Structure formats: C-alpha cells, structure tokens
Amino acid sequence: MKQQVSIQEIEKIEKMIQQLEQEGLLQAPPSLEAGVMEKISRRTQYEKESKHAAVWYRFKIGAAMAASLVLLFLPMPQNMMQEKNPNESFVGYMMQGASALTEGMETISNFAVQQMMEVFNYGK
User: Fold this and answer.
1) Closest C-alpha among 100, 98, 68 to residue 81
2) CA distance 39 to 17
3) pTM for the structure as a whole
4) Do 77 and 103 form a contact (C-beta atoms < 8 A)?
C-alpha cells in the first residue's frame, strides 16, 4: 500500500526546507561539544591502555613459556639424580628439591643479567 502525498504537503515540506536553508541550523549548547570531546578522549585513552595491557599480557605469557622451556631442558643437578635414600624424610626430600630449583633459577637469572648487560653495553 503506497501512501500518496498531496501537492499541499509537498509544498509545505519545500517551504520548511527553504526556511531551514535560510535560517540555518540551531546551535548546540557549548557544554554538549565539551562533553562529546571528553568522551572521545576518554575512549581513546581507554583503547591505548587496553592495547598496552594486551602487549604486557603477551609479554608475560611469552616469558613464562620461555622460562618453562629453559627449566625443561636444564641439566639435572647431581644431587637430584642420586638414588633416594629410603630413610630420608619427606621434608628432607622437599628441601633437596627446593635447593636444586633455587640453584637452577640462580643460574638462569645470572645468565639473563649477563645477556642484558651485554646488550646495554654494546653501543658503548
């Protein structure tokens, strides 16, 4: 069903268009523009922060993966490869494992610091 528009309605619409073109649009209040600009700046800041957070999250995941691979392929310390003494207590066994893990982490951190210092001292 098409609705037919009368000639009087068309003339009325054309008159309204001419009046709008002559007088111009209504001016928005100044506070509206300031509010819109503030929302845009907050949105832009939020997008920058979320991108930064995503990059930081990827870095942490990559570092965790690298650390797990290094720990996987580290040679086992001699004290971990020895036969377990049946008379040894559980606490002693856990302390032995903790000391081996500490020794491995110390080796990794020393290596990482040495590599970083080489990079920083490269240009000097």
Assistant:
1) 100
2) 33
3) 0.32
4) yes
